Amino acid sequence: MKKVFFIISSSLLIIACGNSGDSKSADSKDSAAAKPATVSAASEKGLELIGSSDCTTCHRLQKDGAGAAIGPSYSEVAAKYAPAADTTIDRLAQKIIKGGSGVWGAVPMTPHPALAEADVKEIVKYIMTLKK
Length: 132
What we know:
This protein is mainly alpha-helical. Helices cover 58% and strands 0% of the residues. Residues 9-34 have low confidence and may be disordered.
C-alpha cells in the first residue's frame, strides 16, 4: 500500500512540476482574473508579458501570507515608485533588464537582457496601475 501511495504521489509531483507551459498559462489566467478594473488596453499588454515571462517566479500581484515570494509584490513596487513619471518607468525598465540589488533586501534581482526594452516598459506601466 505504501508503494502505491508513493508512486501516485511521485507521479502527481512530476506532472505538476514538469509541465511548465501549462503553469505559465495558468499564471496569466490567474493574473488576468485579478487585474484591476482601471487597467488600460496598453497596460494590459504588460500583464500579458508578465504572464509569458519568468517574473512570477519571484514576484506576486499582491503581498499575501500564502506562498511568500522572493521579491516584492507588484503592488508594493507600485506603492514605492508611484507617481510614475516617465523617468521612473525608464529607470525601472533598466533595473529589470540589468538586474540589481539592495533596494528590497539582500536577494538580487536577476538581469533580463533578453527582454525588449519596449516590452519591459509595458510591464512597468502595468505594475504602476496597481498602486492602491
